[in-house]
Design goal:
elongated
C-alpha cells in the first residue's frame, strides 16, 4: 500500500469513526467527536505536509536546480530561497511531469497532505454543527 493510499484510509476511517461516534454515543460523550477528529487529523497532515515540503525542496534542489530556481519562494528570513511552492488550487505542470518517479511521488504526497489537512479543518465545524443538530 502506498503512502497516499494510507493517508486517505487514515483520513476516511477517522471521519467514519467520528460520524458513527456522533450517532451512537449519548450527548455528553458525542460532543467530543469533532474535537477528536480535528486533533487526530489536522496536526498530523500539516506536520506531514511541512516535512514532505522540506524534503521535496531539498531533493529538487540537488536533482534539478533549474526547476528549483524557477519555483522557489521566499517564506521569510528562516526559509529564504529554501522552499518551493507546491500549489493547492492549481497543479504545477512542471512538478506533475517530473521524470524522477520518487521526486514526483514526494510532490504528490506533499500536495495530498496539504489538501487533507485543510479538508479536516473544514470538516471540523461541519461535525460540530452535526453534533448540535443530532443532539436536539
Amino acid at each position: 500500500m502506498t503512502h497516499s493510499t494510507k493517508n486517505k484510509v487514515y483520513f476516511c476511517s477517522l471521519l467514519v469513526v467520528s460520524v458513527i461516534w456522533l450517532v451512537v454515543f449519548p450527548k455528553p460523550v458525542s460532543n467530543y467527536a469533532p474535537l477528536v477528529f480535528m486533533l487526530s487529523t489536522f496536526p498530523f497532515f500539516m506536520f506531514n505536509y511541512y516535512a514532505k515540503l522540506i524534503d521535496f525542496s531539498n531533493r529538487l534542489k540537488t536533482i534539478q536546480p533549474d526547476l528549483f530556481q524557477k519555483h522557489v519562494v521566499d517564506y521569510g528570513y528562516a526559509f529564504k530561497r529554501k522552499i518551493v511552492r507546491v500549489g493547492l488550487f492549481h497543479k504545477n505542470h512542471d512538478f506533475e511531469n517530473l521524470e524522477d518517479i520518487a521526486l514526483r511521488e514526494m510532490y504528490l504526497l506533499c500536495r495530498q497532505s496539504l489538501q487533507l489537512g485543510l479538508l479536516s479543518f473544514v470538516i471540523f465545524p461541519v461535525l460540530g454543527i452535526a453534533c448540535i443538530v443530532i443532539g436536539y
